[in-house]
Amino acid sequence: MVDLFLGKVLVKNNKDKDELDTEREIILRLQNRILMLFFGSGECEKCQEFAPTLKDFFKKLTDEFYVERSAQLVLLYISLDSSEEQQEKFLKELPKRCLFLAYEDPYRQELSMMFEVQDLPRVVVLRPDCSVLTPDAVEEICKLGPDCYRNWQEGAELIDRNFMMNEEFDESKMRSMTDPIRRGKKSAKVKLTVASKQEAKPLTLRSALDVVFK
C-alpha cells in the first residue's frame, strides 16, 4: 500500500491541512495498516447519506474515546467533486483524522480509473500490500458497523501492534526488572568463589587445631 502513495502528497483533514509529503511520513502513516479509499462527492445524495455512517464507523475504531488503542486503519477520501469548493465543503462532513488528495492532484482520477469506480459512494479496502481486500465495503459498513473491521483484520493478516510491542518489550525495563536477581546471583557467585578459594588453602597446624577445638 505504501508503494501506491510514495511520491504523492496526502493531506490531513485538520484545520491547518497539514501535508504528508516525505517518504518517511507516508511510510509511518500507511505501513501495516488497512487502507479505506473512499470515492465520493458532496454533490452525490447517496454520498451525503453515507458520510455520517462512515464517520461514526471510523471514529469508533480510531478515537480514544471509544477504543483503548486505535485500529490499524487509514481513511483516504478520493474526491470526485466538480469543484474545490464542493470538496472542501464535503470534507467537513468527514472525520478529522482522515486524509485526502488535493483537488488539483490528478492522481485522484488515476485511482478512480485504477479501481474502475463508476457508482458512488464506494469504499475500496486495501491490504498493506496494496491488494484489494474488499472492492466495495459500503454495504458491509452500513450493515455490520465496526464489527466488519475484525473480518478485514483477519483477511489482511495484519501484524498486531500489541504483539509487536510485546515482542519488542522495552529491553531496558526487562533489564531493570531482573537486575536485582542478577546482582543477587552475582553476589552469591562471588561469595562462593571466595569460599572455594578459602577452602582450597593448604591446611596448616594452626588451622587444623582450630577445626579440632572449634
UniProtKB/TrEMBL annotation:
- Residue ranges annotated for the Thioredoxin-like fold domain, each copy included: 32-132
Q: What is this protein called?
A: Nucleoredoxin 1
Report the GO terms under cellular component.
mitochondrion
Supply the source organism for this entry: Labeo rohita (Indian major carp)
Q: Name one Pfam family in it.
A: Thioredoxin_8
Annotated GO biological processes are: photoreceptor cell maintenance
InterPro entries per the UniProt record, alphabetical: RdCVF, Thioredoxin-like_fold, Thioredoxin-like_sf
